[in-house]
Amino acid sequence: MxxxxxxxxxxxxxxHFGRCAFFSIWKLDEGGQPANIGLRANTFTAHxxxxxxxLPDLPVAPPPGEVPGEPPKDFHLPEPAGKGEGQPGHGxxxxxxxxxxxxxxQVVIAAGMGRRIVNDLNANxxxxxxxxxxxxxxxxxxxxEGTLTSGESCSGKH
Length: 158
Description:
The protein is of the alpha/beta class. The chain has helices at 96-101, 115-123, 136-145; strands at residues 2-7, 22-28, 34-41, 107-110, 127-130. The chain is globular. It starts with a strand and ends in a 13-residue tail after the last helix.
């Protein structure tokens, strides 16, 4: 099982999912023990900050479908609900690249996330946590313990 945590530095949870530089990818073994397998640069969200150039001195996580012991996962695009708030690129299909980039994860953790991406991730069977935790390791530990709490998604136009 894989967990993706939005981050800008590999240690702290990013404030906004779509603007994070990286996703810290964690693998849980069959006994529920976590292992950080590295960072996946966020090259697939529309608002990404371009983290590839500033990769911290941490391992690089394999792309979707190439994590040892994890089968590739499929994703599907939700049916468009219309033009999407009248903004170019903000329709339902605008999340196709992030759905593909995180197709192999089952859990997504961020400090902030817009409701459209929450809906799209939910439609792709992802468990989502919008948390007030600040440290990645603490959030992953709390997820494993079953004590990680989740708040509401952002209502803004992100």
